[in-house]
Write a structure and sequence with these properties.
Helix content: 55-70%
Shape: globular
Radius of gyration: 18 Å
Largest sheet: none
Order of helices and strands: HHHHHHHHHH
Strand content: under 5%
């Protein structure tokens, strides 16, 4: 990612947002990796952790706008996805599913890769109807193939991209989507339509995709100082750490 312009207001830079996103990502993975079984602990961790989905979607959009070479950026994401695939399988993979089931390997970096590629594709499509069809099609495909946190991550980056010049609409649509989604899931669970407590808890926790909007509004448009290799290494290192903890606890 290239150097960004000088800040026009005092706020949070890209690296600071990324640090918040990574901290939230750790909580998100702790909530759902199997270390914790109690839904009353999973829910608050999941709500805080879900904010990482919004933050990384926003950062992916920023990368699309500001990267000097989006091809290299996507290749780095793809490489990170490949490196993360094996530890991700052992942390989250379903042993009952086929070994080659793609959902066992499609971790968060692969989802970000899909988000960036989708935005770049949207830029080349002319016509609102074709754009809408493409967005719906990509959301369906991402869900079918089991990309992590899809189609929600795609919904986020599409809204962020389409309303990049109107933050009020952007924040309104993101808030309405996830609040409505969480409320509908909670009501259907209380009415007895769902019996899977873990799935409902995870769905309701996605209301946490709203809180990062406060920090995104404070974004000043600058990059900040970073050690790039650490930014990319954080995710696979986190997965390996979780895997070692699960092995030690025999989970």
């Amino acid at each position: 990612m290239g150097d960004y312009s000088t800040a026009t207001k005092k706020g949070l830079n890209n690296i600071q947002l990324r640090t918040i996103a990574m901290a939230a990502m750790v909580l998100l993975n702790i909530a759902w990796c199997g270390l914790i079984k109690n839904p009353f602990i999973q829910l608050p961790l999941g709500i805080i952790g879900s904010g990482s989905i919004t933050l990384f979607a926003f950062l992916a959009e920023e990368a699309c706008k500001n990267s000097k070479n989006t091809t290299k950026y996507m290749l780095r994401l793809l490489l990170l996805s490949l490196i993360s695939a094996v530890p991700y399988y052992f942390v989250y993979g379903d042993p009952k599913a086929q070994l080659l089931n793609p959902s066992n390997y499609f971790s968060s970096p692969m989802t970000i890769f899909l988000c960036v590629g989708s935005v770049l594709m949207m830029e080349k499509i002319k016509g609102n109807r074709l754009r809408l069809f493409t967005m719906v099609f990509l959301c369906i495909v991402s869900f079918i193939f089991g990309f992590e946190w899809c189609p929600y991550a795609l919904v986020l980056i599409f809204i962020i991209h389409l309303y990049s010049d109107n933050i009020r609409y952007r924040d309104f649509y993101i808030t309405m989507f996830f609040v409505t989604f969480a409320v509908v899931n909670a009501v259907m669970y209380l009415m007895g339509f769902f019996r899977n407590t873990a799935e409902i808890t995870q769905n309701v926790s996605l209301i946490g995709c709203v809180w990062p909007l406060y920090f995104i509004r404070k974004y000043d448009g600058t990059m900040g100082k970073s050690v790039k290799i650490l930014s990319y290494a954080a995710y696979p290192l986190m997965l390996v750490t979780i895997l070692l903890i699960k092995l030690l606890l025999k989970l």
